[in-house]
Each structure stands twice: as structure tokens, then as C-alpha cells.
Amino acid sequence: MFIQKFFETPPSQMPHRVWWTLVGLAVAIGLLIPRFTEIDVHLDLSIVFIFAILALSMGFLWGFVGMLSFGQTVFFGLGGYTYAVWSLNYNETTFGMILAIFIPVLAAAALGYFMIYGRISSIYFTVTTLVVTIVLEKAVRATSDERFKIGDVMLRGQNGISTVPDLQVPWNHHETLFLTGVYYLAFILMVLSYIGLRLLLTTHFGRVLVSIRENEHRAEMLGYDTRRYRLMAFVISGGLAGLAGGLYGVWGNFVAPEMMNLSSAASLVMYVIVGGKSTLIGPLVGTGIVQQATNWLGTAGLGQVNLILGGVMIIFVMVFPRGVLPSLGTAVTYLLQSRRHLSVQSDVVGKNAQREA
Amino acid sequence: MVRSDYLLETRNLRKSYGGVNAIANVDFKLEFGELRCLIGPNGAGKSTFFKMISGQIPPSAGTVYFDSNNITRSSRHQVSRMGIGIKNQVPDVFDNISVRENIWLAARFRHHEAKGAKIADNVLEQLSLTRLANSLVGELAHGQRQWVEFGMVMALQPQLVLLDEPAAGMTAEETNRTAQLILELNKTSAIVVVEHDMQFIRQIAKKVTVFHQGKILIEDTMQNVQANEMVRDVYLGKSGHA
Amino acid sequence: MSILIIYLYQIAFSLGIFVLISLGLAIIFGMMKVINLAQGEFIMLGAYLCLITTQAGIPFWLAVILSSLGVGIFGVIVERCLIQFLYGRIMDTLLATWGLSLLMVGMVTTIFGPQEAGVDAQLGKFQVGDYSIAVYNLVLIGLAFLMLLLTFCLWRYTRFGLVVRGTMQKPQMAAALGINTKYYYMLTFGYGSALTGFAGAVLAPIVGNQPTMGSFYVAKAFVTVIAGGDLPLMGTLLASSVFGVTDGIVSFLSTQVVGEICVLLVAIVLLRLLPQGITGRFRRGI
Lengths: 357, 242, 286
Hints:
The structure holds 3 protein chains of 3 kinds.
Chain A: H1 2-7, H2 17-36, H3 39-65, H4 72-90, H5 93-116, H6 122-141, E1 149-150, E2 153-154, E3 168-169, E4 172-176, H7 180-200, H8 204-214, H9 216-221, H10 226-252, H11 262-275, H12 281-297, H13 302-319, H14 324-356
Antiparallel strand pairs in A: 1-2, 3-4
Helix pairs in contact in A: 2-7, 3-7, 3-10, 3-11, 3-12, 4-5, 4-10, 5-10, 8-10, 11-12, 11-13
Chain B: E1 6-17, E2 20-31, E3 35-39, H1 46-53, E4 61-66, E5 69-70, H2 76-81, E6 84-87, H3 99-110, H4 113-126, H5 142-155, E7 160-164, H6 172-185, E8 190-194, H7 198-204, E9 207-212, E10 215-221, H8 222-227, H9 229-236
Parallel strand pairs in B: 3-8, 3-9, 6-7, 7-8
Antiparallel strand pairs in B: 1-2, 1-4, 4-5, 9-10
Helix pairs in contact in B: 3-4, 3-5, 4-5, 6-7
Chain C: H1 2-31, H2 39-55, H3 60-81, H4 90-112, E1 125-128, E2 131-134, H5 135-157, H6 159-169, H7 171-176, H8 181-203, H9 214-228, H10 232-253, H11 256-273
Antiparallel strand pairs in C: 1-2
């Protein structure tokens, strides 16, 4: 069946025609939404897209390379702050955005090198990434004093930088992207990231990454230097997270240490768990669901949000360990198969009835 | 540097755990293109020796040479790149990927796109796995999984193939097929096989090395080894031979 | 001369804190291999229990004991309801305990509100040169070592300790010998929780207690246990020493935050050099 073929295309093969059609459809819808909605919807959706890119970076690393990193928020924060600091110092946002990707890439390379080439086990890797994001947040939070500045820009500790400039259009510095413009940018970048990663999985490089997730030992025995591949994957994720960070700064004209705190890291893990890590679309869907739910609950005080976040995480781990999408997929397959059983049975019953007649 | 006469050579190889020598002062030589079987009773040190020559555990002392290169401290991926294909006892494959993908990954390491794909297809044919090409390896029967791994090693087109109990857990029919595959493979690669199954050994063996208590007891043709009294004693547990 | 004493004090104090907050995790993560990301929140719970009991008029040291027991019982409940289903599923345990930590923070915030609360336990201070050292802090250092010693004796010299060690190493073998492994898992987790609660309670007088204080500790505790390596008790002591020296000296010369960052850097370098932790290759010992 057409539908089955679509769901069973392994990541290593080029996506099915149906996939491209659906993506095209989604892009069309996404580009048209702003015409039919108010500005507040554009704002809400933009932040979903931005977090979706972040979730994608984490989900890709976890689901397809087998590395669980709780520290993508490190690069998210670095990206945001880099954009802010550069743009405020030099009044030049295009390069600021480029650096927002590049600096996290460097950071990921350094941190990744230490961990991956040091051959620490996967658990220690995960916990270390968590530790780094917590410490970085604390370090930035401690910069409230006036003397902490990079160039002319004060870091202002836990107050964050609230004068982050809008993104200038690269070919016309007097025009800036505002609200709806940010929507389009975030949406397009999200789609490009998604397609980019999907295509990456079809290349030799991507397929080796998946093999490393499956059995690193065997991959090495085929001659692949798995450390190099894993480092590269970590760096790519870091860059994507940095991009999301820069966009976040543009979106809210604001960056703060909260971007890197435990709560942000937890939310990120939630997006990926809810959507499921076995697909690339999972993190995107998960972000959408969780963000909506959080908004809906947002009116409640801080206490309740943590409560619900925690409770949901526990429920998901116990009941839906593979996330919403795969569980839904399994449920759908199960239903379809039982239907088939029923129709086969009625066939047999019919035939028996005929024979007896 | 004078090129060695031997493809694989160990000198004074030793592996000790605490005070026990799992392998003690083993000098081993393998010719280019040779097919050698390593046999011996349980605990003789065959697997330990195997793991050392395949770069999976470091020796306590001694050296391993492969085609005149010292590979004693080389890492796993370096050993593979030098031209050694390894198949351990327990199937070491990529379970959630297709059969073809498993073999393709091996072939593609050494060759570019088109050639890699062709080699993968050839190997699938040789192993009669073509109709299973798109199945997930994790879903295959044990014997078939062993063959997939075998195929991966073949696709690497290595100079030396190391096999640890390749017939383990196979039916009689599968064992025969595996023996044929090994003989076929020997036309292009040297092979070292560690095995227990005497039937299997008889089908493929030319020269055999018998291990006992961490040392080489005797190295000779299969016929002579089978007739040898010392070997029989060692297998039947009669003590007294160092 | 007095400056030397001050340095020694700073180091010992920092060491003591590392030991206190990591000991419980050393049992839970080091021995049981359970990744409990709610470790910080268990400390927080201990602190808040101490808060409640002292405000109810109970003398401080009794309150500490009650709080530890309270957190120990809570640990047993958590083990029965959550952890026991996830043994062996490392990633799932990690995520579930993270959810638990958020849940705990949420609950405490809802009940107590997000602001800081304090506990009073003045024992006076004395002067050494230009600096004053609080007596309470010295008591704390003593308590840290006391707990370490207590646990060591429990592990090494009692039947309970022997059974626990055996069960953690080879559960099937222990079961084959007729040991109710589930019961011992529960007790061990409870003991580890109680130790953690104790840390929270005794630290309550000297830190600002708020629902989110856990995150301050979880990073340090994990880093200590991981850097410590295979042997939970010896490893914790050694790692705490390394970090205690680093943090003690650096935060005295600079600020708290710089001290923390230095500890992290030292930890990363340590792990790079000894990927299995300090005691990773030790074959004997606890």
C-alpha cells in the first residue's frame, strides 16, 4: 500500500514523492497563514518554529546518532548572546547572525572534543552536558555588575540584554525584519533545517552516523573513526542550536541566562520525548504540542508549570517511552491489522458458508 | 625496511590477568593467502589470542605485526583500515538497518559511491541474501545474521580475515554453506579461523595450530594433528603436558 | 600562620560540603547505578523538612534527624512507585527522575511559595587572625566525615552492608542465595535518600533555602560521584578532596562562581585523563 511504503522508507533512502508533496503543502500553508491571522498569532508561531529548530538539533543527535545531550541550551544561549553582543557593538546584524551559528560551532567542537575523544561513556556524556549548561547559566547570571562587558555591551547578569536589535535585511541596512518578517524567517529556516537534516541522512556521512548509533563497535571494525563522526554530528547540532538562539534574540529583542537554565533544558527534552526521537518530524510536532499546552497552562503560576512539566515527563517515560508519534503509529498499525484480520475472517466464514450451502 | 615474509606475525605475545597468563610467549606466523585454523580445548587462550591480533584488547607484552607494520597498539578502526576484517563470535551487526545497508556501509568505506554499491550487490548475491536485502537485520534468524556479518567482512575485501567461531549456533546445512564460503573467500584473502566444531574444521582446514594453556602446543596439517597423541591427551584432559 | 589555618579551613569546609551532598548519590548512583536527577531536590526536601520541624518548635538537632528519616521514607516511596520499574533502563530513569525533580520543585513552590526561607542554628564563631570562623561550619565538617565513617562501617562490618554489596554486584546470585533483592534495593535507596536529606537539613542554616536550590547541588554531586569512579565511598572522598582543594582556594581568592567554574574545568580535565574516574582501576575497596 502507498501509505505503508511512505511510512516504511528508511532514513537512508531519498524521501518518497509523498513526503516531498506533504512538505510542499506544509510550506504553502505556513507561508499563507500570516495573511489570515493577527500579529499575535505570528508571534506565537514564530517562537514555536524557533524552539522547533532547537528541538530538531537535540532530537537529531539523540534519535539518529544515539547521543543524548542535555546541553543544547548551552549553544542556544551562546548563539543568542553572540548575536546580541556583536550586533550591539557593531550595529551589524547579518554578521552577528552568522557568528551566532559560528561561535556555538566552535564551542561544540571544543566541548565535544574533550568528551568524545576522551571516550567518556554515554551516561557521563549526558550528565556532563547537563552540568555545563547549569554552570554556564550561573556564570552568566553572575555578571550583573557593571564591569562585566564585552566591547561596549554590558552583560547585566540575570537581567539579560533587552536591547537586542532587530535583524537588518542584508542588502539594505535601513530595513529591518519586524514581527511578521521574523515569522517568515523562522518558518523558512525551520523547514530548511528539517529538509537539510533529512537529506543529510541519505548521504554516506549520515548513514555512518546511524550505524554508529546502532553499533559503534562494528562501525569501528569497518574502519570508520567513530569519534570524528560523532564530533561532527555534535558540532552540527551545536550550530543549529546556535541559529535558534540568534533567532530567539531577534524574536524577543531580548536574551537572558534563562535560555540556558535547567528549566529550558527540561522543556527541550520534553519537546523531543513527546514528539518521539525516532523521526525527524517528531521533535517539531512535540514542540508544537508542548508549547500549546504550556501557553494554555501559562496563566497558572510558576509552581504549577513545573508540577505539570514534571508529571507529564514521568507519565511519558512510563507509558509512552517512544513518544507520541511512534505510539500513535503503532496504534494505527494495530488497528489497520485488526481490520484486515476481521475482513479475512469474514471471507473465510463466507467461503465456509458457501461450501455448506 | 625489509618486507616480512609473513602477513601476520606475533613475537613473544603475552596476556596476563593478575598472576595468570592467558597467553604466554606465543610466536605465531601466517603466510600471505594462507588459511589457518586455531583449535584447542576451552580456556586454552584461543579467544584471547584472537582478540589481541584483531586489536580488540592490548597485549601485556610482545608485538603483533601485520604486513610488516606493528599493529600492537593500534586502535580498532586503524586495524580495519590496514586490511583486516574481523568477525567475532557474537553477531556484531547493525540490527535496525537493512541487510543491504549493513553490507553497503562496509563496501562504501573503501570505495566511492558506484563501486561500493556494486560490491554490496555482488556480496548479497554470493551469500544468496538478495531477496532479504531490505529486511532489518534484527529480524533475521541467527544463521542469517551471521552471514550478514560475514558479508560485511567480505565487502571490506581485506587482506586478512579473522573469524571467531563462525559456525557457532548454525544448523548442519548452514555450517556446510559457511565452510564453502570460507574456502571461496580464501581465494582472495588469508583467513584465520578459531573453532571448536571438528566437523567444520575438517571441511576447511589445511594447517592447524593447537593451543593449550596459553601456548602453542603443535602446528601441523589437520591429518597429523588428529593423529597426534599429545593433542588427544590435551583434549581428553590428561594432565602433564606443559 | 593564621592565613594557613584559614586556607586549611576553607579547603576542609569545601571538602565537607562535597562529601555531604555527594554521599547519598554515591550510594544511589555509585552502587545502585540509578541516575537520580532529583538528587538536588532530595536535599531541598531535607532542608524544608528541617524548616517545618524547627518552626514547630522541635530542637534543631532532633529536627535534623527527623528530616533525614523523612526524606529516607520519601525515598522508599519513590523507589516503590517509580524507580523499581526502571532498573536497567538508564535513559528512562534519567528522564523519569528529572520529571520527579520538576514535580518536587513544583509542589514545594505551590505549598511554600518561591521565596527564601531561613533556619537558625547559631553556635557562635571565633577569630583566627583577620577572619572569623563559624563554629557551626566546623561541626559541619565533622558531620561530613562522621557520615562517611558511619556508611563505611555499615557497609563493611554489618551483615546488612555485606548483603547490599553482594546484591548490587550480582543480583541474580544474591537471589539464588535466597535474598529478597527487591527489599534490599528499597532499603539501599532509602538509606541513600536519608543521607541526602541529612545533607539538606544540616545545610539549611547556612544557605538560602528556596524551592529551586536543588539545581545548585545536583551538578556538583554528580560531578563528584562520576569523578570518583567505581568505588563509591573511596571515590567520593578522593574526588571531594580534589574539588575541595580547588574550590576552597579559588573561591576564597575570588568569588563563589569562579570557584564553581574552576571545579567544573578540573572535573572535565580529570575525566579526560581518567575516563573511569579516580578509582576506576582500583580493584579492591569500597
